[in-house]
Design brief:
The chain is an alpha+beta fold and about 150 residues long. Helices cover about 30% and strands about 30% of the residues. It has a single domain, classed as 2-Layer Sandwich (Alpha-Beta Plaits). The protein starts with a strand and ends with a helix. The structure holds 2-amino-6-hydroxymethyl-7,8-dihydro-3H-pteridin-4-one and magnesium ion (2 copies).
Length: about 150
């Protein structure tokens, strides 16, 4: 079993219901969930505020299979990919970390490439485990302190 961390975000429709449904669909693998926090949009600014969270999962799946499962849950919850990159979405599930693995393959980059620049990712991760180490970058709480 490996421990992986998932980033959750929503800024369309009932955001809280979307996050809760996603966690429900991810099922028994979920071992911890951060609080849900409202965040200002990053990247593409002219869009509604997000509700963001992070979850820890204990999984027997390989990273690619975790990613496929996340995309499947996004589709089950009505996510479409016809909008702008970084634009509004009903649900976004990102594979942030997978143990201490470093992966750079088409469609699958772990740790998540923008993780260290994003307060809406680092804060919930630090809430779950301040000592969590991002391979190559260090502790999440140190990354967060650097950002603030
Ligand atoms: N996701 C994005 C782009 N910008 N901003 C916030 N606050 N939260 C997000 O989850 C988010 C974002 C692309 O995935
Ligand atoms: Mg994302
Ligand atoms: Mg995504």
């Amino acid at each position: 079993m490996a421990r992986a961390y998932i980033g959750l975000g929503s800024n369309l429709g009932d955001r809280e219901a979307a996050l809760r449904s996603a966690l429900e669909l991810l099922g028994d693998d979920v071992v911890a969930v951060s609080s849900f926090r409202e965040t200002d949009p990053i990247g593409y600014l002219d869009q509604p505020r997000f509700l963001n969270a992070a979850a820890a999962v204990e999984t027997a799946l390989e990273p690619r299979a975790v990613l496929d499962r996340l995309l499947e849950v996004e589709r089950e919850l009505g996510r479409t990919r016809d909008g702008a990159r970084f634009g509004p979405r009903t649900i976004d599930l990102d594979l942030l970390l997978y143990g201490d693995r470093v992966i750079d393959e088409p469609g699958l980059v772990v740790p998540h490439p923008r993780l260290a620049d994003r307060r809406f990712v680092l804060e919930p991760l630090a809430e779950l485990d301040p000592d969590l180490v991002v391979p190559g970058l260090g502790r999440v709480s140190d990354l967060l302190a650097r950002l603030l």
